[in-house]
Amino acid sequence: MDPVDELMRRGGVAPVRALRAAGVSAHALRRSKERREISTVRQGWVALPEADPKVVGAVAHGVVLSCVTAAARQGLWVPEKPALHVVARPNAARIQVPAHVVVHWSKPVVVRPPDATVDELLNALALVAQCQPFETALVVWESAMNKGLVDRERLRGLDLPPPARGVLERARPFADSGLETIVIHRLRWLGLRMLPQAWCIDRRVDLLIGDRLVIQIDGATHAGEQRTKDIAHDAQLMIRGYRVLRFSYEQVMQRWPEVQSVIMEAVAQGAHLP
């Protein structure tokens, strides 16, 4: 069996014993190393030249990618440019990693396979709840729920640490983006009914407060044909009695007091009432 093909099947990085168990001969491994088709990452591990450098670096230091780093690899919403987060194995000796790398030392929720390079999503979510601010953790968890990667019943059956239990009790799968989760979380103190992805006039809106106050949140790349359609839908909502407030990514993330002030004034005017 060709070691390059087997490594490609395994994501570009793998322990030698796993390759040997799959039928790769010691001779084939040696020849591939001589031809520089593969290289040794650390004792007992090899990788392809084009393998993900984050995974290679984790293997080289004897750790596993986890927390927000593993969540991002699943396509979940995470903070902008987060540090690299890894988890050390319970029996690991002292870990030497670059200063910008965050190392977690905690028992996994789900048993971690010895050959793992990227943590199971359930383990990563548990670490996110312990590591990140509550709002950020809530966004990541709701993103996972919205994508159908996890569900509340499955999570409730696990032995989660207390911070993860707290996030689970608040998380819902309905928000379609991290921005929606953030807005709902920050407005929850108002005590009003808030429906994410509510159906209004033939289309979904990002958030409906009460009966008539629509909050639309534009992502960082909101432009072009999609923006034109959204503006047209805003007009249809308004001529039917809805109040529509549209905010940008930058407003929500960088100028939240202004956003909150506008929404509070709309509520004070009764814009949410039938």
In words, what does this structure look like?
This protein is of the alpha+beta class and 274 residues long. It folds into three domains: 3-51; 59-167, no CATH class; 178-268, Endonuclease, Chain A, CATH 3.40.960. 44% of the residues lie in helices and 17% in strands. It has 13 helices and ten strands. The chain has helices at 3-9, 16-21, 26-34, 53-60, 67-73, 121-131, 134-146, 152-156, 162-170, 178-187, 224-239, 249-254, 256-268; strands spanning 13-15, 39-42, 45-47, 63-65, 84-88, 101-104, 194-200, 203-209, 213-217, 243-247. The chain has a four-stranded mixed beta sheet with strand order 7-8-9-10, sandwiched between helices. It has a three-stranded antiparallel beta sheet with strand order 1-3-2. The chain has a three-stranded mixed beta sheet with strand order 4-5-6. A hairpin with a 3-residue loop joins strand 8 (203-209) and strand 9 (213-217). The termini are far apart. The model has no long low-confidence stretch (mean pLDDT 91).
